[in-house]
Amino acid sequence: MSLSPWSATSISVHLQVMRVFALVMLLIALMAFTYAIASAPTRVANRLGLRGLKRQRVLAQNELWASIEPLVRWLGVRLSGILTDEQRAELDRQIGLAGDYMGLTADMGGITLIVGIMLGGALPYMQISGVAQERLKNIGRGLPYVIDLMALSMGAGLDFPGAVRQVVEKSSNPDDPLVEEFTLILQTMNLGRTRKEALLEFARRAPVETVTEFVNSLVQAEDRGNPVAEVLTIQATVSRTRRSVRAEEAAAKAGVQMVGPLMLVFFCIMGLLMGPALMNIMAGL
Fold first, then answer.
1. Distance from the CA of 209 to the CA of which of 32, 38, 41, 125 falls in 20 to 30 A?
2. Over the stretch 202-236, which tens digit does the pLDDT of each residue have?
3. DSSP state string for 2-68
4. 122-157: per-residue pLDDT in tens?
5. Mean pLDDT confidence for 45-57
């Protein structure tokens, strides 16, 4: 059964109308999306606190990022509705664990995450997570030495803020994450907040075992009225003992982990020694 010329023409016109209608609807949706983005209010980047300091430092050191950061912040605010409150809170927590990486905010981190998923997987999120893990590891390694210095300082007559100030001023690397956290503790106490609040904020920003024990011991000492200097001395002894135990455990694990590579080397050497002999035997047969 064949269609008449009039039926074929009607079908062609109908298809053209549907295509035009679909194109118009697509343009309307695009215009609505563009209007929603353009009409979102612009937020001023925070210049205060550790995150604002990190942002200013990165902008001064990286000219490329300084040129595109306003655009990233502008897009981040306008696309912030894509993320839920839980996702934004988790992203903000990850940025905090990374030491307020590059001074990013949750909105800016959201746009980098969206672009990363579209172009290269979750690379920006993985980058922030990797920086957070490395930062927490450095804090865990360096805290026992800091506790020793604080115990000596308070034993010499300094109070807690003075001991913390000694840690900050005696450090040769101001970009060290532990120095940054203790600088933030000083700033927090200078703003009128209590030592307990500053320490709990430190534990929240660096949730590792050594930091948790350090903060808990000082908070309990403050609640019970125990001398902080004695608590720090005990904490320093415990930290040194734990550091020695961990070093011994790492050395023991290293010996076990070397068995596999050594066996591979052994089999390679045996192959080199026995290979020519086996080839000669096979040739003689």
1. 125
2. 988 888 888 888 899 899 888 888 888 888 888 87
3. ---HHHHHHHHHHHHHHHHHHHHHHHHHHHHHHHHHHTSPPPPPP-SHHHHHHHHHHHHH-HHHHHH
4. 556 666 777 788 888 888 888 888 888 888 888 888
5. 65
3-state secondary structure of 122: strand
Q: Which pLDDT tens digit goes with each residue over 65-122?
A: 777 777 777 666 666 666 667 777 777 777 777 777 676 766 665 555 555 555 444 5
The answer on 144 and 103 residing in a single domain is no
Residues 145 and 239 placed together within one structural domain of the fold: yes
On whether both 76 and 171 belong to a single domain, the answer is no
What's the N-to-C CA distance of the chain in angstroms? 79
Q: Report in angstroms the alpha-carbon separations of 186 from 31, 194, 228.
A: 50, 11, 17
* Residue 162 parent element (H or E): helix 160-170
CA-to-CA distance for 33 and 81, rounded, in angstroms? 12
Both 154 and 105 in one domain: the answer is no
Number of domains in the chain: 2
In whole angstroms, what is the distance from residue 10 CA to residue 16 CA? 10
Q: Is 269 among the domain residues?
A: no
Q: 140 is in which domain, residue-wise?
A: 135-255
On whether both 95 and 151 belong to a single domain, the answer is no
139 and 248 co-located in one domain: yes
100 and 153 inside one domain: no
Question: Where is average pLDDT lowest: 17-26, 43-52, 72-81?
Answer: 43-52
For 132, residues 6+ apart whose C-beta sits below 8 A from its C-beta are 94, 97, 98, 99, 101
